[in-house]
């Protein structure tokens, strides 16, 4: 049984004919007659007496009319409830993320988020400073951390924060690509990134005696990625970022580094807000899927 058939049943019962019902529903009279026939076939019952002057409910139709009206009220209540939920879901969500995550994997997802939830407006903050979710400086955060710390934080580990060395396809065509750590010497490196990225990357360069190999340095992750993509040199990058960049190739297996994760966070005070819940529920499975690719 189709709810649309019930709508036509109610319209004919109230209008007395398929013509009046069709005008009310803004469809053809043929469509209304077909819907009534389909409902009667589905129920195995005759609901109307067809008369030259119109349609008249049978005794069975009269008995079922209140039930159809109850379905109509329930459907209307559902539609109104959904509309109210959409209104509550609308509004601004402040999302904070490191620049390297925001400018690569996050932006395509936010475009899809807008398609799915056009009433939600995202304010994206790529400051390197950790925003205080408890104080309301942001509602959602995507961060590289060992372990989230703070009262009331609600955290989901999206992926392991794995890093390794990448080169552009252009650089690989012009130079031998290192496949072992012992082959890194003699290659040009690009350094930089915002402090959260550079602190990890710089420690790795120092541990491998490659600090002097840095020929270019950018103080932003966008600049770092642009330089690597342009073929200026190699760089150690988060795998979740570089593996999803078709113009970059992995040189070495992921490094042995301090255990860190990529976390999607909110605070207990925000988690039940419909717009915040919608953002987290949309982003989490997609970010987890990206993490599995590395």
TrEMBL record:
Coiled coil: none annotated. Residues 1-58 form the HTH lysR-type domain. Keywords: DNA-binding, Transcription, Transcription regulation. Pfam families: HTH_1, LysR_substrate. The keyword Glycoprotein does not apply. It comes from the Bacteria. Belongs to the LysR transcriptional regulatory family. This is LysR family transcriptional regulator. It comes from Sphingomonas corticis.
